[in-house]
Amino acid sequence: MSKDKIRVGFIGLNPDSHWAATAHLPALQSLQDDFEIVAVANSTLESAQKTAKALNLPHAFASYKELVTSDQVDLVVVTVKVPYHFEMISAALNSGKHVYSEWPLGNGLEEAQKLAKLAKEKNVAVAIGTQMRYAPEVTYLKNLIEDGYVGQVLSTSLIGSGGNWSNQTAEEYYYLFDKANGASMLEIPVAHTLVGVAEVLGDIGEISSKLYSNFNEVKIAETNEMKPKTAEDQILLQGKLESGAAFSVHYRGGVSKATNFLWEINGTEGDLQITGDTGHGQMANFSIKGAKSEDDSLQELEVPKEALEGWPEFPGARNVGHIYQLLAEDIKTGSRKAPNFEDGVKWHQLIAEIDPSAK
């Protein structure tokens, strides 16, 4: 395969705000030997031109359809709201482009299945943004477990805050509070975190769930208008991992003045405790403590410094960067190492098991 840089076109990129700018841009800037951002398509041509000028990009397209059919773009990155994923990703795949899609892949299981089938038919490299699994802290935890730090894992429990999904929000985030949009607390922070848990401890074998709401309306901060809220703000999961270990997860809407991410792993020979500054494990700053059976108390455990060298400071960008690194190899060599759309379907299937309405 050619060693030329992979030419990237973004659908949905603002140069100074939102996820594409804070995570994807720094990630790609740390991989400049492999990638070059060349194009953008936003909701309007004016917006695309503004981004292109700010980032010195050669191409600003009036629509996503123009971007995905351009012979100047090799990889299409989709970072727009979930309800638009299916049509945009389908268009990119049908144009023979490689695709990186933000998670969730589709608005429900059926869309995800169709996209995975199409990607396989087109035989292109694709990636889904379930990046918590590549956090250096998660890799470190996985190694600790594999090396027997806690012995046999007996149980794991986790509590997290969604940030959103309580009783107040900004107007631009109101779409998250409508379950029909496929971007609820279950699909975003819960699913992201379950991917990370499974990376460390193995797949989930059995699961049962309860989904509740404390609030059926949400206040829009800018106007004080009350609008309907259909996305749950309390999600409780329990079950058994394939290893046989018990697990439980509780996510609550809003933020907590106590802790917003607390994950414990208990074993026959020790314990691990992971805390984070946000319930969104895909972009959290994690602290890890551990204790062996002979220890009197938990001790700080440090991730090897070399695991952080050369990567952006923001954990979200660092973790996304690892997916891009794998995707570059897939595009250049024909390997399939990045988390792909079939892997995304697996997590959509779990969501549908937790909440059948997510199908």
TrEMBL record:
<dbReference type="InterPro" id="IPR055080">
    <property type="entry name" value="Gal80p-like_C"/>
</dbReference>
<dbReference type="GO" id="GO:0000166">
    <property type="term" value="F:nucleotide binding"/>
</dbReference>
<feature type="domain" description="Gfo/Idh/MocA-like oxidoreductase N-terminal">
    <location>
        <begin position="6"/>
        <end position="129"/>
    </location>
</feature>
<feature type="domain" description="Gal80p-like C-terminal">
    <location>
        <begin position="136"/>
        <end position="276"/>
    </location>
</feature>
<dbReference type="InterPro" id="IPR000683">
    <property type="entry name" value="Gfo/Idh/MocA-like_OxRdtase_N"/>
</dbReference>
<dbReference type="InterPro" id="IPR051317">
    <property type="entry name" value="Gfo/Idh/MocA_oxidoreduct"/>
</dbReference>
<dbReference type="Pfam" id="PF01408">
    <property type="entry name" value="GFO_IDH_MocA"/>
</dbReference>
<dbReference type="Pfam" id="PF22685">
    <property type="entry name" value="Gal80p_C-like"/>
</dbReference>
<dbReference type="InterPro" id="IPR036291">
    <property type="entry name" value="NAD(P)-bd_dom_sf"/>
</dbReference>
<protein>
    <submittedName>
        <fullName>Predicted dehydrogenase</fullName>
    </submittedName>
</protein>
